[in-house]
Specification:
The chain is an all-alpha fold. The chain has helices at residues 25-41, 46-59, 62-97.
Length: 98
């Protein structure tokens, strides 16, 4: 006898006014390097391009990564600030409904 089929979970809807998650240092590096390397990378898929750029990222030392780490830290701080504000707003709106 086989086990009963699993039910698919219903995906909860995301609030469009919720703050966007912060970008990592690698994502900042990727968005800056992909256009610059587009000619060298040619007709590769996005996945293949990302793998090559990831190898470049791993080869960077701390000093070379610093500008992107700084951007990521600022974005992380922005996210934390916006999340606190957002959670404060949602708590206030829930309290006014009760």
């Amino acid at each position: 006898m086989s086990p009963p089929p699993k039910r698919a979970r219903k995906k909860s809807k995301k609030d469009p006014s919720a703050p966007k998650h912060p970008m990592s240092a690698f994502l900042y590096y990727l968005t800056s390097e992909r256009p610059r390397l587009a000619d060298q990378l040619g007709d590769m898929s996005i996945g293949q391009q990302t793998k090559i750029i990831a190898k470049y990222w791993k080869a960077l030392d701390e000093n070379d990564r610093a500008p992107w780490e700084k951007l990521a830290k600022h974005d992380k701080d922005r996210y934390a600030r916006e999340r606190r504000e957002y959670q404060g707003e949602t708590r206030r709106s829930v309290n006014t409904l009760n």
